[in-house]
Design goal:
The structure holds 2 protein chains of 2 kinds.
Chain A lengths: L3 E4 L2 E4 L5 E7 L4 E9 L6 E7 L5 E2 L8 E7 L2 E6 L8 E9 L5 E3 L3 E5 L1
Parallel strand pairs in A: 2-11
Antiparallel strand pairs in A: 1-3, 3-8, 4-5, 4-9, 5-6, 7-8, 9-10, 9-11
Chain B lengths: L2 E3 L4 E5 L4 E3 L2 E3 L6 E7 L6 E7 L6 E3 L2 E6 L4 E6 L8 E8 L12 E2 L3 E6 L1
Parallel strand pairs in B: 2-12
Antiparallel strand pairs in B: 1-4, 3-9, 5-6, 5-10, 7-8, 8-9, 10-11, 10-12
Classes of the chains: A mainly beta, B mainly beta.
């Protein structure tokens, strides 16, 4: 089956620094990728939708200057959390939609802890 | 906009018991997809099933079964003879049709049900 990877799987950073999370579709071309955030014991909240070669579309309430999304190729999207603060600590999950089959596949998630 | 409600926040059962996880959805779309995902403690979402709104047939896969009823806007999930490995958070989700618009491709998740199966 289709595989989506995320790197890193977990990261600890200091407050004020920036962290980049990568989402890759390994065996298909992803025309669209989605980024979700999940706080402990809560559901997944969609942050933004990124289409290859264009600007990401952010959900209401998500700061686009804080969560920079780049979808430069059909197999890679990155989420950069800029000037991270402890409240940004969360589980970030990406999903990628196969451009041919329209199926959506989830990555394994990245656990971010900001100290 | 779509909405998915999983009223059961937490369920606790003893191994070998049957358990049903409820899911109620709201949508104005005439066609849509419904999903169930399992999220074990590792965090990775595991796809369980996708159902097209046109297909109201119940489905069984091993110990798992799903009951889709459009009349009550429900898509319930039953685990028969539960096992400790079934302990996880289960999410129901809906997806509008691939017809463009602002909801294009966006999954709407329910709040999740934490299932704990005790030995």
């Amino acid at each position: 089956g289709a595989v989506v990877s995320q790197h890193p799987s977990w990261v600890i950073c200091k407050s004020g620094t920036s962290v980049k999370i990568e989402c890759r579709s390994l065996d298909f071309q992803a025309t669209t990728m989605f980024w979700y955030r999940q706080f402990p014991k809560q559901s997944l909240m969609l942050m933004a939708t990124s289409n290859e070669g264009s600007k990401a579309t952010y959900e209401q309430g998500v700061e686009k200057d804080k969560f920079l999304i780049n979808h430069a190729s059909l197999t890679l999207s990155t989420l950069t959390v800029t000037s991270a603060h402890p409240e940004d600590s969360s589980f970030y999950i990406c999903s990628a939609r196969d451009g041919r089959s329209w199926e959506q596949y989830f990555g394994p998630g990245t656990r971010l802890t900001v100290t | 906009a779509q909405k998915v409600t999983q009223a059961q926040t937490e369920i606790s059962v003893v191994e070998k018991e049957d358990v049903t996880l409820d899911c109620v959805y709201e949508t104005r779309d005439t066609t849509y997809y419904l999903f169930w995902y399992k999220q074990p403690p590792s965090g990775e979402l595991v796809f369980l099933i996708r159902r097209n709104s046109f297909d109201e047939q119940n489905e069984i896969s091993g110990r798992y079964s799903w009951n889709f009823q459009k009349s009550t806007s429900s898509f319930n999930f039953t685990i028969t003879a539960s096992q400790v490995v079934d302990s996880a958070v289960y999410f129901c989700a809906s997806l509008p049709p691939n017809a463009g618009g602002t909801s294009y491709g966006k999954l709407t998740f329910g709040q999740g049900t934490i299932l704990t199966v005790h030995p």
